[in-house]
Amino acid sequence: MRKNLLFLFTLLLSACSTIGSGTYESPDSGIDVQVLIGPMCPVVQFGTECPDGPYQALLTVIDSRGREVMQFETDEGGRYRAYLAPGDYVLRPETPKGMPLPFAEEQRFTVEPLKFTQVVIHYDSGIR
Fold this sequence. Notes:
Elements: H1 2-17, E1 30-38, E2 53-54, E3 58-63, E4 68-73, E5 79-83, E6 87-93, E7 107-111, E8 116-124
Parallel strand pairs: 1-8
Antiparallel strand pairs: 1-2, 1-5, 3-4, 3-6, 6-7
């Protein structure tokens, strides 16, 4: 009985320490992501505002060893909070399959202990 309880306790502890593929769930460090797309107007004229809009995107997080640690989709407002261990990462915006646009560049970022790093991704809509 005692061995069973010890095994169960160990199993529960190990399940709580990992999430996804290689990251751990820590409510005190990670990234807050905002994804925008623009331009949104076919012809931008002087004096006319045409702000970038939120974009629901698929993003991949890669660690400093080049391993994919998680993939997520932002909400309709282009936002997502990801819990990550402190360290250096690359955020790779995915382009819809078979489409050259919209497109965004990869972005490097660092997660510090006990902090959330703000990351803003700008997709190019291709509208000119």
